[in-house]
Amino acid sequence: MEQIDLLIDLNKGSPHHFALVFIDLDNFKKINDSMGHGAGDLLLQLVTSRLRKAMDDKDLLGRLGGDELAILIRRQISDEKILGDTQKLLNLLGNPFRLDDKSVIITASFGIAIWPVDARSSNDLLKAADTAMYKAKAMGKNSIQFYRKEMKSEVLYKMELENQMIEAFQKELFFVEYQPIVDLADPQKVSFEALMRWQAPGRGLVSPAEFIPMAEEIGLIGELGEWVLRQACEKIREVREQFGIDIRIAVNVSAVQMKRPGFLAGVKAVIREAGTPPERLTFEITESVFIGNMEQAIEIINDLKEFGVLISLDDFGTGYSSLSYLLQLPIDVLKIDRS
């Protein structure tokens, strides 16, 4: 902050400008959780070293805290040049890092704010760059965004929705709808897909396409996933007791949820606690679970199948879309994407 204040004092009354680049490492928490904080600290050192070697000598790199870094571009260069230099840094971070004899790939989200166009004080400039960085994350991470004034309201909306979602989970305001699955060959087979829904106060029904990625980002997806599974198990028991019918329910499992430490132990504990026969359940996954570590994903799926759960591959046709690749996967059901 002192360097920013100094630059502001030096450039007051002049036509000069400078840029602040806010950097946040994507999914850094997963490294800490899976490999330990020591590995996380080492990764930060390696990232910092790699960035410094590629930066211009006139620019400054500093750590703001946690996995957040900032670059102060003191040179008088165009926005196009700022974007080009930042893109080179983003691409550079895409190369693997070596941690404990393991190859780790990390991405980052970059937010850029320009003084005095976007802010006139160091504090406001930092907030603007931070806001742009959050917009980059919202756009899918591993990207760069320049600050725009309308971003502030977008980020505030997202933060408010995140807070509402946490509160909704704590107060059990989510609910599940059950979509029938019809077997034309055998109408006696009764099955459903459990679909999580959220009626947010003052907002109405929030699309799962909006709140599921948000739950993944803030680390709530594991708890939400287990909650839906618990509801499905309860519904299976309820229908059995009331109507004497054994139904099957499919539950969606996201890639982020499946890759969390303790996923297997957690879902097995829920099923055992409910007393639900595992063969009454289907876990629906998408091809994204195989990205990054296909062997580990297959190992988890095989464990679930041995436990008795069926596996359904949803949205086939939007990812690898290869029939030969399907032969490698231990799946029971294939759902083809409507597009």
Q: Could you explain how this protein is built, in words?
A:
This protein has twelve helices and 14 strands. The protein is an alpha/beta fold and 339 residues long. The protein has two domains: 148 residues, 2-Layer Sandwich (Alpha-Beta Plaits); 180 residues, EAL domain (TIM Barrel, Alpha-Beta Barrel). The strands form three sheets. Strands 8, 9, 10, 11, 12, 13 and 14 form a seven-stranded mixed β-sheet that branches. Strands 2-3-1-6-7 form a five-stranded mixed β-sheet, sandwiched between helices. A two-stranded antiparallel ribbon has the order 4-5. The longest helix is centred in the C-terminal third of the chain and has 23 residues. The radius of gyration is 24 Å and the shape is elongated. The N and C termini lie far apart (50 Å).
